Amino acid sequence: MSLYILRRILLIIPTLWVIITVNFFIVQVAPGGPVDQAIAEAQGIRSNMSMERISGTGQSETGKEAEDSGDQSRSMYRGARGLDVETIAEIEKRFGFDKPIHVRYTNMLRNYFLFDFGDSLFKGRSVIELILERMPVSISLGLWATLAVYLVSIPLGIRKAVRDGTRFDRWTSIAVIFGNAIPSFLFAILLIVLFAGGSFLKIFPLRGLVSTNWKELSFVMKILDYFWHLILPLSAMLIGGFASLTLLTRNSFIDEIGKQYVMTARAKGLTERKVLLGHVFRNAMLIIIAGFPGAFVGMLFTSSVIIETIFSLNGLGLLGFEAVMQRDYPVIFGTLYISTLLGLFLGLVSDLMYTVVDPRIDFESRVT
C-alpha cells in the first residue's frame, strides 16, 4: 500500500502542472484582461478631462488627438487610443505584463512550487491571505452540505431498494425527480422569499455565516447562531445534491440484493438485517464512497458559488467568481491550484477508504 500511495502522490505533480499550464495559456490569450480594464478606466478619465477642457475653452484639440490616435493604433490593446506609450507601459508594469509570456509562465511555476501566489491585482492583499480568510466559510458549506446529502440520501436509497416497487418507492421517486429538477439557486431564492423576510416570514438570517454580535455570545449560543445561519444555504444545496446520490444508492443496493451470495445468506437463516448490513452494505457502498471526494469538491468549489453569492457568504466560490469577472489572474490561479490539489488528495483518500470498507481490495498489486 505504501508504494501505491507514493506513486499517487508523485502523479499529483504532473497533473497539477498540466492543469495550471493549460489554464494559464487560455487565460493569457482571452480578451479583456486586467491591462485592458485599466486602460479602459484611464481612457474614461482622459475622456472626461477632455470634455471639461472643451467646455471650458470652447476649442477642441482634434488635430492632436487624431495624431495620438494614429500613434496608438499600433498598440496591441484595443482600447489604448488616446493614451501615450509611457502610460500603457506603466500599466503593463503594474500588472506584470511588461515581461514576455514565457517569463511570466516560468515565474509562476517557480512561485507556485513554493506556494507563493503573489498579490491580488485589485484587492491589495496577498492571494494566500484571501484564500485562508475565505476557506472556513467554504469548508463549512461544503462539509455540512455533503454530510447532509449523505445522511439523507443513503438511508432513503436503502429504504427505496428494500421496498422496490411499493407505494413508498413510487412516491419518493416523484420527490427525488422533483428535487433534481429544481436548480439550487432557484430554491435558494424561494427560501429567502418565504423564510428570510422576502415577502412572508422573517425567521432565518439572510446574510453572513454568523451574527454581528457573535463574539459577545456564549459558547452554546455561538454554535446555535452558526447553525441558524447555515439552515437556508444548506437546504438550498441539499435539494440539488441528494437526488443523484439517492438513486445511485438505490440502484447499487438493488443490484447487490439480486446476487447469488445474498440468496445463499438468506438460505442459511440469516435475518434480513444481517444480510443487508453484513453483506450487501459493504459491497453496495463501495461506489458511493468513491463518489464522496467528488461530491465534497463539487459542493466546496462549484455548488457553493451561487449559494455564497445569494446569501452574501464570503467563501472561495465567491472569491473565484469575482476574480474571473475582474480578470484577477493571481487569485484565479491561486484558487484553481488549491482546489485541484485538494481534489487530487481527496481522490487518494477515496481509494484508501476502499480498503477500509472492504479489506479484500489490495491496491498494492496494481503497482507495476
Let me know the average pLDDT.
Answer: 77
Molecular shape = globular
Percent strand: under 5%
Span of the ends, CA to CA? 12 Å
Annotate the secondary structure layout.
Blueprint: H1 2-29, H2 34-57, H3 62-72, H4 85-94, H5 101-113, H6 127-162, H7 167-181, H8 184-195, H9 219-257, H10 260-267, H11 272-290, H12 292-310, H13 316-326, H14 329-357
Summarize the structure in words.
The protein is mainly alpha-helical. It is built from 14 helices and no strands.
Which features characterize this protein?
single chain; 368 residues; mainly alpha; 14 helices; 74% helix
Brief characterization of the structure:
It contains 14 helices and no strands. By secondary structure, it is an all-alpha fold. It starts with a helix and ends in an 11-residue tail after the last helix.
